[in-house]
Design goal:
Elements: E1 2-7, H1 15-29, E2 33-37, H2 52-56, H3 64-75, E3 78-84, H4 92-100, H5 102-110, E4 122-128, H6 133-141
The chain binds flavin mononucleotide.
Flavin mononucleotide (FMN) binds near residues 86 and 87.
Length: about 160
């Protein structure tokens, strides 16, 4: 099983890094092969809605999406998005990666192309933020138009104090 982690915080050793590292370490102990990428260290240009993906099935923008990330996403059995809440969303660098995955939407819904791994692929969201639990919960899970099926929602509380 291949697990792809997207470490969405621009901070190298912040909370997001720590929770994703713990998750991946546990996954490796269960036999998974893991790889973590950090969007803020990569060349990921924003989506320009060129619509090429909807007509031809690929994104014409030349950067790390094309070089490696699309392939990693396609090969992943589980994709773990680890992201702090930034103004009720994910940080911009990770958002650029997510937007560029419009390519997969275009291939599936416009071109009706098969992605053999898609049916089994699972998603996990790990998140942290500075404000209260309800705000984080509503940010990720509450909007009624959210199309994602939530199978499980585990909430952990970590108490931190300044050294
Ligand atoms: C630009 C910016 C926007 C933020 N917006 C929110 C927010 O809307 N809600 C929230 O709970 N925390 C917000 N935070 C706090 C971060 O989510 C919090 O500090 C988090 O622990 C950062 O993760 P990290 O330690 O992995 O870098 C924001 C922080 C920044 C820098």
């Amino acid at each position: 099983m291949f697990i792809l982690g997207l470490q969405g915080s621009p901070r190298k050793k912040g909370n997001t890094h720590d929770i994703l590292s713990m998750f991946m370490e546990q996954a490796r102990q269960y036999g998974a092969v893991t790889q973590t990428i950090t969007p803020h260290t990569l060349d990921i240009k924003p989506c320009r809605e060129l619509i090429v993906c909807e007509k031809k099935g690929f994104c014409p923008i030349k950067d790390d999406m094309e070089k490696s990330i699309y392939k990693l996403v396609k090969n992943a059995d589980i994709i773990v998005i680890a992201a702090p809440v930034f103004f009720y969303n994910v940080p911009a660098q990770l958002k650029a990666l997510i937007d560029r995955c419009q390519m997969f939407w275009g291939r599936k819904y416009k071109l009706k192309l098969e992605d053999p791994n898609a049916k089994n692929r699972q998603g996990v969201l790990l998140s942290c933020g500075a404000s209260g639990f309800m705000s984080k919960l509503s940010c990720w899970a509450k909007p009624p138009d959210r199309k994602m099926k939530i199978h499980d929602f585990a909430v952990g509380t970590v108490s931190l104090s300044a050294a």
